[in-house]
Write a structure and sequence with these properties.
Blueprint lengths: L4 H36 L4 E9 L2 E9 L13 E11 L5 E8 L2 E6 L9 E7 L7 E9 L10 E6 L3 E10 L31 E12 L12
Parallel strand pairs: 4-7
Antiparallel strand pairs: 1-2, 1-6, 2-3, 4-5, 6-7, 8-9, 9-10
């Protein structure tokens, strides 16, 4: 029995289409697996943006001082080093940030121009030689005032030197209610003591003193409510 030429052509076309679909599905699975792996893996580099120039980003290299519970990166305190590095992004580099929307954490795409100085970047490379940046996750903004390296109470002030008594911060213990009756209630006429709420930290002075030098470039600020 001879098979008509039209049927042979149809079967050949179907085989070609099946092959193309199989290749596309395989490529998508590989791409998805790589993307999912990158999201769940530790970043290859952590940095804080120092400057931006076109497709080049200069960062201060940073590190995480600790990992809290092993459930993922980004949960430790950011510590800067004095080392800098310039990375280059391309049209294939995925730049995202995490946003909370509709009860879920999703990724929002960004452009290079959306980046700003002091942004914290988690960086993944596409190759083992670490030459091609595949993904950048923007994790907020670095604020050195949130994690002071030294706390103290002024002991003496000179023109360019401040001597302090080194201190540490301690959270006050909650007061125990020793009454067997109803819980004590604060009278309306008595405002809360301290003025900054129950989460206010207490300073604990040590016997150690330290002298620090200040210059014209030293930023001295205060915060007011």
């Amino acid at each position: 029995m001879r098979v008509p030429k039209s049927l042979k052509a149809h079967m050949s076309l179907m085989l070609i289409l099946t092959f193309i679909i199989a290749v596309l599905i395989l490529s998508w699975n590989i791409s998805y697996a790589q993307s999912n792996s990158a999201q769940n893996s530790q970043p290859d580099l952590i940095g804080v943006v120092k400057s931006l120039s076109g497709s080049k980003i200069t960062i201060y290299i940073a590190k995480l001082s600790s990992q809290s519970d092993g459930r993922g990166f980004g949960r430790g305190r950011i510590e800067l080093t004095n080392k800098t590095q310039t990375i280059t992004v391309s049209s294939k580099t995925s730049i995202v940030t995490k946003v909370f929307q509709n009860g879920q954490v999703t990724e929002k795409k960004l452009l290079t121009k959306d980046l700003k100085t002091n942004n914290i970047l988690y960086i993944w490379y596409a190759d083992s030689k670490k030459t091609t940046v595949s993904k950048i996750l923007v994790q907020g903004t670095y604020d050195p005032y949130q994690t002071p390296e030294l706390i103290g109470v002024i002991k003496n002030v000179e023109s360019s030197r401040i001597t302090i008594t080194v201190a540490t911060m301690e959270r006050p213990q909650p007061r125990q209610n020793t009454s067997n009756n109803q819980p004590q209630q604060r009278m309306a006429s008595q405002p809360p003591q301290g003025g900054f709420g129950r989460g206010m930290m207490n300073l604990k002075l040590s016997s150690q003193t330290k002298t620090i030098a200040i210059s014209k470039s030293t930023v001295i600020v205060t915060r007011t409510f």
